[in-house]
Amino acid sequence: MGLAWTAMGGSSLYIETSRRHIRQGAKTDPNAVGGSLHITGNLGDVMKESAQIALTVARNFLYSLEPNNLFLEQEHIHLHVPEGATPKDGPSAGITIITALVSLATGKPVRQDVAMTGEVSLKGKVLPVGGIKEKTIAARRSGVNCLILPVDNKKDFEELPTYITEGLEVHFATTYEDVYKIAFTDVTETTTNNVVEQEPLQKVSSAAAAKSGTWP
Fold it and tell me: One of 92, 123, 181, 212 is an active-site residue; which one?
């Protein structure tokens, strides 16, 4: 689950990925070498570029995680953002797209109670985004308990009123590796171990404390 800023406030947006089974002899993209990425969902140019960046980062991350896993290199993948009649654009779905791709390639499910937002660089650095207040409200409205934000947005989150942040488990990511450690943590393990902090990951537990969309 990703989070979007809209003119009407915040909204949750889902990223779906699936393997495309190509029959022998079927026509494919002549420019594709090995695997390919097919993108749908009425996305703007910026978001399409973000998806391509995410694929590169996901491939590099998967290589460091499972060197023998060639899924993202060899398979034809379909990436879709539902509600295709709604235009969507912006770069802040980067870490969400990577997570969806890694989940597909490894067969590991993502935590069901987590939502995230953050642009990503080619080196895997998580970059700040806008609309933190609206996105946090959207997360709460969707029943999300865990939120992953860029570390450079920590100040923006801390300025939010308590009634918005109360009860949320919030993590601030510096690199995609930080995102992975939270998004693929077993929920029961999280509850038992209270999510042990690991540098450079920063965590805030607030005890007191989607559909015309763009991804600012």
Answer: 92
User: Is residue 128 scored above 50 in pLDDT?
Assistant: yes
Active site residue 92: yes
- Set 50, 135, 155, 206: catalytic member: 135
Separation between Cα atoms, residue 59 and residue 72, nearest integer Å: 6
Closest listed residue to residue 98, CA positions, set 68, 82, 118, 84: 118
Q: Give the range among 20-29, 86-95, 172-181 with minimum mean pLDDT.
A: 20-29
CATH number of 2-20+34-184: 3.30.230.10
Burial (CB count <10 Å: 0-12, 13-18, 19+), residue 95: buried
Could you tell me the pTM of the whole model?
0.82
**End-to-end C-alpha distance for the chain, whole angstroms:** 16
- At 60-97, the pLDDT tens digits run 999 999 999 999 999 999 999 998 778 888 889 999 99
Q: Where are the domains of the chain?
A: 2-20+34-184
